[in-house]
Amino acid sequence: MTTLRVSDIEIYYEVHGRALGEGDWVLNIGGTGGDLRQTFPDRSPLNDHFRVIHYDQRGLGRTSKPEVDYTMADYADDAAALIEQVAGGRCHVVGTSFGGMVALNLAVRHPELVDRLVLLVTSPGGDHASYALPELQLLDPAEAFTTRMRLLDERWDPDAEEPIPGLGAIYEFIVQQQQAVAPPHVQAGLDRQLAARDGHDVVAALGTIDLPTFVGAGRYDGLAPAANSEVLAERMPDARLEMFEGGHLVMFQDGRVWPAVIDFLSR
Q1: Do 262 and 49 meet the contact criterion of CB atoms below 8 Å apart?
Q2: Are 244 and 218 in contact (CB under 8 A)?
Q3: Rounded to whole angstroms, how far apart are CA atoms 200 and 29?
Q4: What percent of the chain clears pLDDT 70, i.e. is strictly above it?
Q5: What is the pLDDT of residues 99-146, one digit of tens each?
Q6: Secondary structure class of 125 (helix, strand, coil)
Q7: Which domains does the chain have, with CATH numbers?
Q8: How far apart are CA 41 and CA 38, in angstroms?
Q9: C-alpha–C-alpha distance, residues 98 and 104, integer Å
Q10: Separation between Cα atoms, residue 123 and residue 226, nearest integer Å
């Protein structure tokens, strides 16, 4: 296992992509509940063009799970330490969903470490927050599952030939993920992550994030509504928005997403 000691935790990370010494570095920050054993970092389209750091965030996967409250500052500082100690300095940052929230906090706290910034299906928080996931715990399992699926894509229709357009063969895998019940030790870390997520709010600081930024949104995203991405693009000085055909999993639904991201990072 490759780990990095950061403050109070050991962060598990993997580097994939181009040979050491070749190409730009990218820090890839995953979403809520992310675990590299389930997210297939070796298959990321980013790997074909960059040296990419993928990692398990605090409380998740093979990274330490301290039994204390986590904050967005903690997550941002963890990301900063990886950039400094693995990439050796300033690099590109790609954040998806919760990872985008971490990336925003990173850009506020450590702008000197970020070259180009990619924010996919995410939100700035405050009055423009993503759906409050802890609310799902108040629903019965069937209703929670239905809500989860419609958050992923507002068009979800379980009776349709293609229940979520564009997902194809991975649809059944997504269903299994959304129906799965996390064991207690996994749920504990997830709950702490969600509690930190509830405190995410960089709305007032958006005007200070003067970095070249690509904002990607899914037109049918119920979890991080496209309107939140519009706020990011409107209030960040050097940001541009691209709207794609899909929901919260638009990276799998619309084949234009990754080529657009890679083109932006390669400039």
Answers
A1: yes
A2: yes
A3: 16
A4: 98
A5: 999 999 999 999 999 999 999 999 999 999 999 998 988 899 999 999
A6: strand
A7: 3-132+185-265 (3.40.50.1820)
A8: 9
A9: 10
A10: 9
